[in-house]
From TrEMBL:
Matches recorded under CDD domains: PBP2_LTTR_substrate
GO molecular function annotations of the record: DNA binding; DNA-binding transcription factor activity
Family membership noted in the UniProt record: Belongs to the LysR transcriptional regulatory family.
Organism of provenance: Dinoroseobacter shibae (strain DSM 16493 / NCIMB 14021 / DFL 12)
InterPro entries documented for this protein: LTTR, LysR_HTH_N, LysR_subst-bd, WH-like_DNA-bd_sf, WH_DNA-bd_sf
HTH lysR-type domain segment(s): 1-60
Protein name from the UniProt record: HTH-type transcriptional regulator
Lineage, opening ranks: Bacteria, Pseudomonadati, Pseudomonadota, Alphaproteobacteria, Rhodobacterales
Keywords: DNA-binding, Transcription, Transcription regulation
PANTHER family (alphabetical): TRANSCRIPTIONAL REGULATOR, TRANSCRIPTIONAL REGULATORY PROTEIN
Claim: DNA-binding is one of the keywords in the record: yes
Length: 297
């Protein structure tokens, strides 16, 4: 059976994206070309690899059996690329990082700046989604999470602890000071939309003894802007505060949260020298920048 590696790549992207359009966008091909590649591969293997419907492309039983072999070929190709590249100090090419939007907006920009200063040939892609990044579908090369995943063929490493406090606009707090927890009752609360809290570590209102927010968003960046507009009090990452100098923390000793970031990779990527080197350097810069931003808060 004579298989074309480019067709295998197309198969993997369609399998992970569950459709032609998403795969075509990632591969920078048109959907019709992706469809022809899939048809050609199915002709070679002699079986339908996908169940096609208006809702998308779902793996058939044959496709599900074929998937791990295609992933093994992908890992072998990556390992071969590492071997050909040797062990030079410069990192290059694309690396896709998935992260919660607070981390992506207020921490990763400075980390990426350091990475690119040190390795100008890198191409960094940041996916900021209000949900857990699916590494099994290769949505990213690595993901930053606030809870260690409990399932999947993944490697998990704790990156660092970070801190959060209750904060509001300084003009608002000048009118309605907050000296005790009882004073919170005089303020609107800004927070997450309850049914869109995708990780239990983000359930800050429960720790405040509250069950609702007067103004809510699934985005940390939107929440921060709502606070900057003087709409109320909300829980803010300390590392985001340098980007919002008009916000002031309250109840610093009475209400302080500590959470952790974890870096997660697909287990097979442990064999990829380039990603191992990238992760080691990235982790160091990440911890340094987190500590610096919290010091400046």
């Amino acid at each position: 059976m004579d298989l074309n590696w480019d067709d295998l790549r197309v198969f993997l992207h369609v399998a992970r994206g569950e459709g032609l359009t998403a795969a075509a966008r990632t591969l920078r091909l048109d959907p019709a070309t992706v469809g022809r590649r899939i048809a050609r591969l199915e002709e070679v293997v002699g079986e339908a690899l996908f169940l096609k419907s208006p809702q998308g492309y779902q793996l058939s039983d044959a496709g599900a059996r074929y998937l791990p072999h295609a992933e093994a070929a992908e890992q072998a190709a990556r390992a071969a690329g590492d071997a050909l590249a040797g062990t030079t100090e410069d990192l290059s090419g694309p690396v896709r990082i998935g992260a919660p939007d607070g981390c992506a907006n207020y921490l990763l920009p400075s980390v990426c700046a350091r990475m690119l200063d040190a390795h100008p040939a890198l191409e960094l892609q940041i996916i900021a989604l209000p949900r857990v990044i699916n590494l099994s579908k290769r949505e990213a090369d690595l993901a930053i999470t606030v809870s260690p995943p409990e399932t999947g063929r993944l490697t998990v490493q704790k990156l660092a602890d970070y801190h959060l406090h209750l904060a509001g606009h300084r003009d608002l707090l000048a009118r309605l000071p907050v000296a005790t927890r009882a004073d919170i009752a005089a303020h609107r609360i800004v927070g997450y939309i309850p049914d869109m809290v995708f990780d239990r570590e983000l359930d800050y209102l429960t720790e405040l003894g509250l069950d609702r927010a007067a103004v809510a968003s699934n985005s940390v960046a939107v929440q921060l802007n709502l606070l900057r507009a003087g709409l109320g009090l909300g829980v803010v990452h300390d590392f985001a505060l340098p980007a919002a100098p008009d916000l002031t923390r309250v109840l610093r000793t009475d209400f302080a949260l500590r959470r952790s970031f974890y870096i997660v990779r697909h287990a097979d990527d442990q064999k990829v020298v380039r990603l191992r080197r990238f992760t080691r350097i990235f982790n160091e810069f990440f911890r340094d920048e987190l500590a610096r931003l919290e010091r400046d808060a």
